[in-house]
Each structure stands twice: as C-alpha cells, then as structure tokens.
Amino acid sequence: MRLNELSDESLHFRVQQLLAEYVEVIDDDRLEQWPELFVDDARYEVVPRENSDRGLPLAAMFCDSKGMLIDRVVSLRQANIYALHYHRHVLSNLRITQRSDAEVQAQCNFVVFQTRVQGETAIYSAGKYQDRIVATDGGLRFKEKRVIFDTYRIDSLMVRPL
C-alpha cells in the first residue's frame, strides 16, 4: 500500500482504526498484542507536557525498539506487582498533520480513566498522541508513538502503556 494513493478520508479512517486497535488491546488487557502494532525499530515514549514544551528529553517511559516493548509486557506479566486496575481510553480530535509516500504523522487527544477493584473510577491521565505511522505488509503500524501527558503527576505506578 502506498500512502499517497489513499484519499484523505480513507487514510483518516485507517489511522483511526489503528488507534482504536491500539487502545483496545490495552483496555482489554491483551498487552501481548500491543507490540505487534509497531515496526521493529519503533520508538515509544511517554513524556510529561512540561518536558515536551521545554524540549527536555526525560521520559516517564521510553522504548526504542519493538523488542523493548515486548520486554515491557513480559516484565509487567512476570515481575511487577501492582494493584488490580482497568484502563479505558477515550480518543478525540484525530488530525493528520503530515503525509508522504513513506509515512503519515497524526495527532489526537486522549483521556485514560482508571477503575480500581473497589469500583472507583478516576481520570488517570490526559494528553495527546503524536504518531508517525508507516504502511507495512500487515497494514499500518507505528514507527513512533509519543504520548505527551498533561497531568503533572502519576497517581500510581505507571504499569500499562498509555
């Protein structure tokens, strides 16, 4: 698939479907499928807005390959101990910011609600995604996903990807 051959509407729909699948595998706790949405040399980072605005490199979570994403999931499943909780993402305002034959850049807002075992639901994080997406034989995949969160503190251990 050549990205420039897609109409604006078709490209927007395909990017929206990739994002929907991304949040679905996180929210439905199918984290083993999460790395499959990225290319092998992908970059994934979760950055506080204040660092992003100031051009500071410090990230709350950083992975520079699909292998590191896989390691993150294995660690989460086998090594980390944390209180049971559920996430639910809400995405809005998807916009294609740039496109070429090789990649698409997109941005959208997100809110993540967290429900703990006691039944209490609260906003866990809010911010925006800045994505670089490429076409592969398996469909669209993330080359880079930059999660910029507006909330200045993380309420509890950041175990799951945002």
Describe this structure in words.
The protein has one domain (3-149): Nuclear Transport Factor 2, Chain: A (Roll), CATH 3.10.450. The chain has helices at 8-27, 49-54, 66-78; strands at residues 38-48, 61-63, 85-99, 104-116, 121-136, 139-149. It has three helices and six strands. The protein is an alpha+beta fold.
Assign the CATH class. Answer: Alpha Beta
- Ranges with pLDDT <50 over ≥5 residues? none
Note the beta-strand portion.
35-45%
The number of domains is: 1
Q: How helical, in percent, are the residues? A: 10-25%
Main sheet summary? 6 strands, mixed
> H/E order of the elements?
HEHEHEEEE
The chain-level mean pLDDT equals 91
Principal-axis shape equals globular
The structure class reads: alpha+beta
CATH architecture, please?
Roll
Number of helices: 3
Cα distance spanning the termini: 28 Å
CATH topology: Nuclear Transport Factor 2, Chain: A
The side-by-side strand order for the widest beta sheet comes to 2-1-6-5-4-3
Q: Over the alpha carbons, how many angstroms does the gyration radius reach?
A: 16 Å
Number of strands: 6
InterPro entries: NTF2-like_dom_sf, Rng_hydr_dOase-bsu
Protein name: Anthranilate 1,2-dioxygenase small subunit
Pfam families: Ring_hydroxyl_B (PF00866)
Organism: Extensimonas vulgaris
